[in-house]
């Protein structure tokens, strides 16, 4: 059976690395937990690390977090739908918002639940996902800041999530200016300028982040130690907090090319044979007990560099072990490093066991 392993000590070291650089700069931060897909075992590891803020895009996950530790500050990190207003107020201390209509419903629901619900106004900064347009921000704020049972604790933005727009110093300076405009216009204090996500950490390490940006929301960097500007691992961090282990269930020498009339496979792809290919060529292939139902091969990287992934069907993956120096046998485990999306698929699968090292 294939399983996903979280390496506890590597996670702790990544957390300490991030917590240190944030504390040195007087920055508050929380962990984006949506990658964990509500896995209680792994959420408890974050609680044990001392994480006090958790951010998620699924209400069911926030509900689990509150059940584990009601003192954790929870945040719903996408604009709430009309149907979810009651649950957002119940399980999220904070929500990210872009619509006046929605915020008014949150105010009404918070009053019903006798709560103060906190909100962060998300601003469109060019990535073209959620966000209030900059030129409409003052009018927007004016319509909501006096609503009952609400507290506006910050402004924020999402970059690099949809269109790949990077959080440059200029972008974050622009976000800081929006804070100054609101504070000057309405004589209020905006506690958080939440412009920092994993992709902005390189700016932080270069001391190029505007001082007004005082709140970060971190997911990928914590779990993968990745510099999203360069694609490299941040010095001092681990890129293998998670690993996939899959078992070999068949080893056979087989032709490199399929034999017979070709059509679409289960994933809708059609194999094309290069006319210059030596059709008699073979390779030593192994089949693993995992498939497209649980993962996507392009997000996996075999620890053994001499192994290549051939392809996968719904429940099995084929690898080429011809060049491997290790003499594999049936029942051996093949380990893989994961990209973010690779881990997300696996964590969302009920068929993959989750364990802790």
From TrEMBL:
Entry's Gene3D superfamilies? Alanine racemase
Per UniProt, the keywords (alphabetical) are: Isomerase, Pyridoxal phosphate
Q: Does the keyword Isomerase apply?
A: yes
Q: What CDD domains does its record include?
A: PLPDE_III_AR_like_1 (cd06815)
* Cofactors: pyridoxal 5'-phosphate
Where do the Alanine racemase N-terminal domain residues begin and end?
Answer: 11-225
One Pfam match, by short name? Ala_racemase_N
PANTHER family, alphabetized: ALANINE RACEMASE, LYSINE RACEMASE
Q: Under which name does UniProt file this protein?
A: Alanine racemase
